[in-house]
Amino acid sequence: MHIFELLKKDHKDVKALLERVSMASGRASATRKRTFDSVAEMIEAHMAGEERVFYARLQRHYETRVSAIEAIEEHKIGKQLLRELRTGNVDSDQWQGKFKAFRSIIEHHIEEEEEHVFDECEDLFDDSDFEEMGNSFTEEKRRFLATGTSSRAGSGRTASGRASTNRAVRRPARSVKPQAKRRRVA
Hints:
Shape: elongated
Number of helices: 5
Strand content: under 5%
């Protein structure tokens, strides 16, 4: 399936869930928490797929590099807020305010992507490229939802920042300074 269709469908689903979280109030805090957890997982999987597939391809082109970097930076802010919201009390005023900020960032990101980024990359790829990106995006989301991690090598952390237990953490090799050879003094 064409990646734009998949992204737009996810965007529509996310907006609906964000609205449900916003509408849950008072005695419905358990419902708000469950709905938020659902939208958080969906957004994390979506971000992992976008970053690994869509934005990775866009960064290779001069015409879309800045837009891809901007979108990834928006993801970083969204992930930070997700981490904070996951651990917060859904009944607190602080959580409500943070959720409103989170929702605003996500909705801005969706609007920017659909109204600008899609247009920017329309001439860079042909239909088979968009279909291939769609297939890869779907696979990346599936993998994320199954394991809680992206296929991206690196930090050993999930999109929410939790340490992953499903794969080894890669650590950079330590740099060892060569020692000067010592001369034996007789």
